[in-house]
Amino acid sequence: GWRVRVQSLRRRREHEECVQLLRSVPILKMQLPKSDISLLAAELRRRTYPPGGTLIKQGEMQEDFFLVASGEASVCISGEECATLTQGDWWGDTSFIRKSPSTATVQVSGDEALVAFVLSRQKFTELGLHKRLRLPRRNAIVCGRGE
C-alpha cells in the first residue's frame, strides 16, 4: 500500500542525498568509480546523534565507519580536543580496518544533532573497500601522539 511507497520514496531520497555527499568527498570521488559510489550509498545507513551524543569512546572497539552529513563532532584524545568533524569528514577508518580500539572519543558538539551515514566493518569488507580505498592519515586527528 501507500506506506510501502512512502518508505520506498524516503529510502530513494536518502540514497540520492548519500550519493551527493559521497561525490562531494574528494578522496572518494578520486578513488571510486560512480558505480561504486552508488553501491556504497545503498549500504550506508543514516543515523542521527543528539547534541552531546557520543559516536565512539576512546578505547572502545570500532565497528562502524562514519561519514558526517550534517552537524559537528569533536575528536578528543585523552581529553584534549584535536579536531572538529563537519560535513564530508569521516571517522573510524584506522581502528576500524585494523580491528583495534578507537584512538579517540568522538562526540557531537554544538546545539544541533549530527547526522551521519554509517557503514559496518562487515559491509566495508564485503564491498572490497579495505583493498580499494586509501584514506590518508589526517594530521589534525593524530594530535597528542607526538607526531
TrEMBL record:
Pfam families: cNMP_binding (PF00027)
GO CC field: cAMP-dependent protein kinase complex; cytosol
Coiled coil: none
Domain Cyclic nucleotide-binding, chain residue ranges per copy: 28-127
InterPro entries named in the record: cAMP-dep_PK_reg_su-like (IPR050503), cNMP-bd_dom (IPR000595), cNMP-bd_dom_sf (IPR018490), RmlC-like_jellyroll (IPR014710)
PANTHER family hit by this protein: CAMP-DEPENDENT PROTEIN KINASE REGULATORY CHAIN, CAMP-DEPENDENT PROTEIN KINASE TYPE I REGULATORY SUBUNIT-RELATED
Protein name per the record: Cyclic nucleotide-binding domain-containing protein
